[in-house]
Specification:
The structure is a homodimer of 424-residue chains. Chain A is an alpha/beta fold and 424 residues long. Chain A has 2 domains: 259 residues, Acetylglutamate kinase-like (Carbamate kinase, 3-Layer(aba) Sandwich); 147 residues, 2-Layer Sandwich (VC0802-like), CATH 3.30.2130. The first copy, chain A, contains 13 helices and 18 strands. In chain A, the strands form 4 sheets. The first copy, chain A, has an 8-stranded mixed beta sheet with strand order 3-6-2-1-9-11-12-10, sandwiched between helices. A 6-stranded antiparallel beta sheet of chain A has the order 14-15-13-16-18-17. In chain A, strands 4-5 form a two-stranded antiparallel sheet. In chain A, a hairpin with an 8-residue loop joins β4 and β5. In chain A, α2 packs antiparallel against α3, α6 runs parallel beside α8 and α12 crosses α13. The first copy, chain A, is globular. The two termini of chain A are 32 Å apart.
């Protein structure tokens, strides 16, 4: 007997048939004797419709009036999950599973006041735990809670993953199962490398690097939260038949477990290869090398909402001037250049160069902390394929390499192979 | 300066354009210096969609499980008003009117636990009144409140009228304006009698008789509530341009005011002619005339959910046997006859006769309390047209006459004319 949280996203609850299928997944776990809470998103497309309505209102006439009130936006958009939760509760009851729906304000899930992008502050799981102990499934609206103003607050798009992990932490659940339209986390993108393998386990730290680099399986915030609270999070497919072989195997179901690295007995040196396309490289030549100059460059870029990724600064030759290279999304190059030009006087640099159409390829693995030569292997492999390296940044568990766009797929396959990820 | 509640139904808020039009109606009243609360329904068609989803779930397998859980039904269906309230608040803000949405549980509007058909027990209007005093419009979700179980409870279809009147009572509003797709209450159905006139005023009692007889302008419950709390309720059209002449005339806007009879200075003897089609007449011949026999007949019919309308019982000739005639909806005749047959032994009657396709025509007016001969006028007028009277029932302010279906329109026009209702 275990306590589990099951989360189903919008495509998994897109219509009544799929909601009924979700109910069968839940029943399987209930029948196995587990205590179950379910977190649901709005039916696919519903949130977009509601957002379009909220944003489709005529623009404010006075400049002091906001385009729309985020608190009203929240009240409108949160209704989508409310509908799904009620429907799933009915679907569960219809197959003999005791269930009731819970809206964020009923539990309550308390958030801060940042409507539209609220953070969960506290969840009182006591009543849910009591009822789950009596065999009742709790069906909880994802993506929302109640703010200090007693109004519904949403967590921002994709927030249902975060809701699920937070609820799993509050309920001290043994596992948080994220049912989604992929069946787990792969060593790299299978569309680029068909030999990519599904990982049985991946550490929180690795998943964070994978997610922010574009693995797109789980919301980054939810992984951070899982790491902090050590919530074992299982990514698995909602499109498998609920009674398919192995689906009910608690210790080893199909999917990928995101967990503490202590739980990963046989650690690989490298776990996966991620990539991010459409990066642009911007280089400032002969920048003043003095305290505060980095802040002078990146402060205004952040204010302009430009997401700076890799930053490379070399030791200056003479101690007074240096080169600074960084990447931004290709679509933001012009905006970034305009911001830099405007601040040229205060920052002080000789020239600025930029080039779009770059790709960042990253090698990720907690094993590299204790293994030397991981980076050298990558550089050598890329060199052998004639791929030029534009910039390199490293962290404890990641090596990121900026290369020319056309070499993206070749680089991913080369690195995937050189670390033996295509072998079982 | 006055305090008013404005209620808009589903067709009035069916899309973003209409919601913006509603906002202009509200702004007109705010600009006139009034304190305003608005009660909204779900966008037209939305409630039906949600109900269909809730009811479309696969049927329960075990007979002990209900078809659907009314509490979940409420959570699902109540989301429709939540969306409209948020959208209207944004629309108001966009034209410079301070506004916020309120869901039933936030105010709170407390109801009993009869999910799906809950009754309002109490409304705490203090915070709304405070904010309205500061110039903020309160946009309230109609049709719902919160039950003693801390879950959303809906009032049943059409409940938004009831919400509006209850809120008007709680806020001690000067008037409750019901904006709908008709522009008031008429002396009779204009589709039958083109000379029908819109009434400037009608008493609560008369409106109750009109509504239950098929005037279909306002939910009966909302009129009952308005009568109890003496809420002056104004029926008016939401499809008029918000700035059309007279719309902002507080004392005399276009529409029909439902009010206490004391407020109606020039009382007409007869206010309107209502009718109900598809009635069936059932007569029991030579029923035992003893205490409890009526209960023996109508108790089982009520248990079978058959709505009995007119009931006529004559004094028995010999003190032991009598005839009993009553009407039911034509569609329920077979069911009613089966129920009667089943209870024949306990009730005791010689024979049962039935005839469908009847019409009940009613003459309504508080003035008839103090005027003799009102009924005689009706009987004479119908006789002159050769219309046979099947049964008659009367109350203090109503005379109902059962006639053969084909004479319905002729009877309505005849009565409308004989009481002078077609004259200004």
């Amino acid at each position: 007997m275990a306590r589990i949280v099951m989360k189903f996203g919008g495509t998994s609850v897109a219509d009544l048939t799929r909601i009924h299928n979700v109910a069968r997944h839940v029943k399987r776990e209930v029948d196995a004797g587990h205590e179950v809470a379910v977190v649901v998103s709005a039916m696919a497309g519903k949130t977009n419709e509601l957002v379009a309505w909220a944003q489709g209102m005529p623009k404010a006439t006075g400049s002091s009036t906001p385009f729309y009130d985020a608190r009203e936006y929240d009240a409108i958009v949160a209704s989508g999950e409310q509908v799904t939760a009620g429907l799933l509760a009915i679907a569960l009851q219809s197959i003999g599973v005791d269930a009731r729906s819970w809206q964020g304000w009923q539990i309550p899930i308390r958030t801060d006041n940042a409507h539209g992008a609220a953070r969960i502050l506290d969840i009182d799981g006591s009543e849910l735990v009591r009822r789950m102990g009596l065999g009742q499934v709790a069906v909880v609206t994802g993506f929302q809670g109640i703010g200090p103003d007693n109004r519904i607050a949403t967590l921002g798009r994709g927030g249902s993953d975060t809701s699920a992990v937070a609820i799993a932490a509050a309920l001290k659940a043994d596992r948080c199962d994220i049912y989604t339209d992929v069946d787990g986390v792969y060593t790299t993108d299978p569309r680029i490398e068909p030999k990519a393998r599904r990982l049985a386990k991946i550490s929180f730290e690795e998943m964070l690097e994978m997610a922010s680099l574009g693995a797109k399986v789980l919301q980054v915030r939810s992984v951070e939260l899982a790491m902090v609270h050590k919530v074992r999070t299982f990514v698995r497919s909602s499109f498998e038949e609920p009674d398919a072989p192995g689906m009910g195997d608690f210790d080893n179901p199909p999917g990928t477990l995101i967990c503490d690295e202590d739980e990963i007995v046989e650690q690989q040196v490298v776990t996966g290869i991620a990539y991010a396309k459409d990066e642009a490289q911007i280089s400032l030549r002969r920048v003043d090398d003095r305290p505060g100059v980095a802040a002078g460059i990146f402060g205004p870029l952040a204010e302009a909402n430009i997401n700076v990724d890799m930053i490379v600064q070399n030791i200056s030759e003479d101690g007074s001037r240096t080169d600074m290279t960084f990447t931004v999304p290709s679509g933001d190059v012009d905006k970034a250049l305009a911001v830099l030009e405007k601040n040229r006087a205060t920052v002080g640099f000789d020239a600025v160069q930029s080039e779009a159409g770059m790709v960042k390829v990253s090698v990720i693995g907690i094993g590299m902390r204790s293994h030397a030569g991981v980076a050298a292997t990558a550089f050598k492999a890329l060199a052998e394929k004639g791929i030029n390296i534009r910039a390199i940044t490293t962290s404890e568990i990641k090596i990121s390499i900026l290369i020319d766009g056309p070499y993206a797929e070749l680089a991913v396959r080369t690195l995937h192979s050189v670390y033996g990820l295509d072998k079982q």
